[in-house]
Write a structure and sequence with these properties.
Order of helices and strands: EEHEHEHHEHEEHHHHHEEEEEEEEEEE
Shape: flat
Oligomer: single chain
Largest sheet: 5 strands, antiparallel
Number of strands: 18
Radius of gyration: 50 Å
Structural class: alpha+beta
Number of helices: 10
Length: 516
């Protein structure tokens, strides 16, 4: 069962099993999608490939879980997330968003196979997890109104209007006196008639200031405004001219001393200080002597092929070198694991095993069965011509070609696939391009790396009864439980491509059938 490691407050690790995480997320019925941004969250064990954390979350009721099979680089994760979340925001189904994000990764990073790292586990039928209403529009935020600050003239005008209205209200409250009189307690005093007031607005009331003698307005002088810069510029030029003249006059009056070079004669040097150099005669001798015998280079097999070849060329060249008995070159096309497992990495043991003589060996036909992140499975028909009459003997061999550094090397050669004539009596119901459905009653149908694969390391996925899958390639005739059946290449709901057998047993009349 998968496990997630969290960081506790002390900086250590706090583990949580996939079942515990599923129990925690089950309390949120509105949750539609879980994205596990951790490595190997979609990787199961060797005995049960559905023991990964992502598959357990889906079985516990999460509609869709996106996880990673292997470690993923930052560049690949950014490229995937950018397209994936953008597609979800536009209302695309989650499976379409994952497919589009994978295509985006393959176009941006064509030198790796990291586009196959993300895996989607889904329970939803149509893949639409979020319903987005296109009629709802998001309005931009309103701009704050700018505060209007009145200018100085405007403030003066407002103050004058306030003072004028205040005077008018004060005048209205005072009693009206007849012209030429003024009220004094006990008697009436004549006053000169009022003069008509000017229409100019009165000045605002200010505190009394000591009277000063009126100053006469000064006229602008010569050194004001632009004239000041002109005068300063002319003065600067005149000063530079005077300095130049002064330097010229001083150079003419004061003579410049001429440096005197002392003359040294041979007689002035004491005899004891005269160096005496020894005379050395250099004789050039040859430093290289040609070898007495012609040089014969010795060849040592290198661990890597040079130059690097494609995976199909590696298979073809290996059997060409094998047929020509050029075992030194065929040896370098084998992986380190192949050499260690079969020959203990000893080239002499490899030669000792090649005792049978062949007229010729070559590849007549080949086809790619499955491609993974670091392995390619190639079915090749190898024709061995042997015997006195060089009779043909064809062998159907599956080659597991692995990527080691920048070179493709043969990691394993497996038998089990045979010619189509062996499956003449086997039922053949499917076809390429059709949709097939798993017809087993209880047991899941295994998706394998190539036909007749039996080891657990070649199990890619398993299909539950009733699962519909598209048929991509086939058929290929191979054994299953000592019986020859047709095998077909399909794609699982998780996006894994592999081969399934169109077989039968006592419990299930057919493992997989076409959808009617």
């Amino acid at each position: 069962e998968g496990t997630i490691l969290f960081e506790d407050p002390s900086g250590g690790t706090d583990s949580m099993s996939a079942t515990q995480l599923a129990r925690l997320l089950a309390d949120h019925p509105t949750m539609r999608l879980v994205v596990m941004n951790s490595c190997e969250g979609a990787r199961g064990g060797k005995e049960d490939i559905f023991s990964s954390t992502a598959s357990i979350l889906v079985r516990r009721g999460i509609p869709a879980v996106l996880a990673m099979q292997y470690e993923i680089s930052d560049k690949a994760a950014i490229a995937f997330s950018t397209h994936f979340y953008k597609a979800l925001a536009e209302g695309s189904p989650v499976d379409a968003a994952v497919s589009g994000a994978r295509i985006s990764m393959s176009l941006l990073m064509d030198d790796t196979l990291e586009w196959a790292t993300p895996v989607l586990y889904m329970r939803s039928q149509d893949g639409v997890l979020f319903r987005i209403d296109p009629s709802v529009k998001v309005l931009p935020p309103k701009k704050q109104e700018e505060s209007v600050v009145p200018s100085l003239a405007e403030r003066k005008r407002i103050e004058w209007e306030k003072a004028q209205s205040g005077r008018q209200r004060e005048a209205e409250r005072q009693p009206v006196q007849p012209p030429g009189t003024a009220e004094i307690p006990g008697k009436r005093v004549s006053t000169p008639p009022l003069q008509p007031q000017s229409r100019t607005p009165p000045r605002t009331t200010e505190p009394a200031r000591p009277q000063q003698a009126p100053q006469q307005a000064s006229k602008p002088g010569f050194f004001s405004g632009k004239n000041k810069f002109i005068v300063f510029g002319a003065g600067g030029l005149a000063l530079l001219f005077l300095c130049g003249c002064l330097v010229f006059i001083l150079s003419q009056i004061i003579p410049v001393p001429t440096p005197v070079t002392p003359v040294v004669r041979d007689t002035d040097i004491p005899e004891a200080l005269t160096p005496v150099l020894p005379v050395v005669t250099i004789t050039r001798e040859p430093t290289w002597t040609p070898p007495p015998e012609p040089f014969t280079p010795t060849w040592t097999p290198s661990p890597q092929p040079e130059p690097a070849l494609g995976y199909a060329d590696v298979v073809k060249n290996y059997w060409d070198f094998y047929g020509d008995r050029n075992f030194e070159k065929s040896w370098v096309l084998l992986s380190d694991r192949f050499r260690e497992k079969n020959y203990s990495s000893d080239f002499n043991k490899y030669l000792a095993d090649k005792t049978e003589q062949y007229c010729d060996v070559g590849v007549t036909r080949w086809r790619v069965l499955t491609e993974t992140r670091s392995n390619v499975y190639i079915l090749a028909v190898v024709n061995f011509k042997k015997g006195a009459s060089c009779e043909d003997s064809a062998s159907y061999l599956v080659h597991q070609v692995t990527l080691s550094g920048s070179s493709w090397l043969i990691d394993r050669v497996i038998a089990g696939v045979t010619s189509d004539s062996k499956c003449d009596r086997a039922a053949r119901r499917l076809s390429v391009g059709a949709t097939a459905r798993v017809a087993t009653r209880a047991e899941p149908l295994m998706v394998r790396a190539f036909p007749s694969a039996a080891e657990s390391e070649y199990l890619f996925d398993r299909l539950l009864p009733g699962t519909d899958v598209p048929v991509l390639d086939g058929p290929v005739c191979a054994k299953y439980n000592d019986t020859f059946y047709w095998w077909w290449k399909v794609r699982s709901p998780a996006g894994v491509e592999g081969w399934v057998v169109e077989g039968s047993d006592d419990t299930d009349p057919a493992f997989i059938k076409p959808v009617q």
